[in-house]
Amino acid sequence: ELVDFIVFYNRIIDRFELTKEQNVTFERKLPKHVAFVEIDEDKLTQVLDNIISNAMKYSPEGGKITFTIKEQEQQLIVSVADNGVGIPKENISKIFDRFYRVDKARTRRLGGTGLGLAIAKEMVEAHGGRIWASSKEGKGTKISFTLPYIQSEEDDWV
Ligand code: ATP
Ligand code: MG
Questions:
Q1: DSSP calls for 18-85
Q2: Could you count the other beta carbons within 10 Å of the beta carbon of residue 64?
Q3: Cα 94 to Cα 1: distance, rounded to the nearest angstrom
Q4: pLDDT tens-digit profile of 34-89?
Q5: pLDDT for position 73
Q6: Contact 38/4 with Cβ under 8 angstroms?
Q7: Mutational test site, ligand 1, from 101, 104, 134, max ligand atoms within 8 Å of CB
Q8: What distance in Å separates the CA atoms of residue 64 and residue 137, rounded to the nearest whole number?
Q9: ipTM of the complex
Q10: What is the pLDDT of residues 107-132, one digit of tens each?
Q11: According to the model, what pLDDT value does residue 109 have?
């Protein structure tokens, strides 16, 4: 479906904001205008659910999660940043692998299977985008992905 991603993203953030039981602040840095992309809404909902639940899960009490959309010529760059535990540099390339979890003891306590980001990666790539993480141990983590604007046939007049 052709979707205004700003509205779509806001709706998902709203759902987390309304149901959260943790003391975490949300900040949105989103464009004020529309940004239409061709997406499968169910799949992108799952991508964002997986990324945002991680941000919540690994955030400290009183933490802050920042939601951003930036625009580049041919794509949107969507990101979710937290100021939680972070991910050690040597593990960062593996977090999108199936069943990979950084700290066995810590993650056992927090629960999960290690599939969330692997699924997110698969779905972002199915939309022609890419996904990556930047993180500093003890400072926080930012997960970003791109969504290309797919040129439709009707746009050929430009
Ligand atoms: P699941 O999502 O299946 O419930 P999970 O959250 O452990 O389990 P992923 O979402 O795939 O699995 O994440 C993989 C690992 O990456 C996590 O176990 C955690 O170690 C690390 N990780 C992911 N997001 C964050 C984050 N925001 N802050 C710190 N570590 C993270
Ligand atoms: Mg997860």
A1: HH--S-EEEEEE--SS--EEE--HHHHHHHHHHHHHHHHHTPPTTEEEEEEEEEETTEEEEEEEE-SS
A2: 16
A3: 32
A4: 999 999 999 999 999 999 999 999 999 999 999 999 999 899 999 999 999 999 99
A5: 84
A6: no
A7: 101
A8: 16
A9: 0.98
A10: 666 777 889 999 999 999 999 999 99
A11: 65
The residue whose CB lies within 8 Å of the most ligand 1 atoms, and thus the one to mutate among 47, 80, 117, is: 117
82 lines ligand 1 (CB under 6 A): yes
What pTM did the predictor assign?
0.93
Contacts of 86 (CB under 8 A, 6+ apart): 135, 136, 137, 138, 139, 140, 141
End-to-end CA distance of the chain: 22
Half-sphere exposure of 152 (CA within 13 A, CB side): 7
Cα–Cα dist 156/135, whole Å: 40
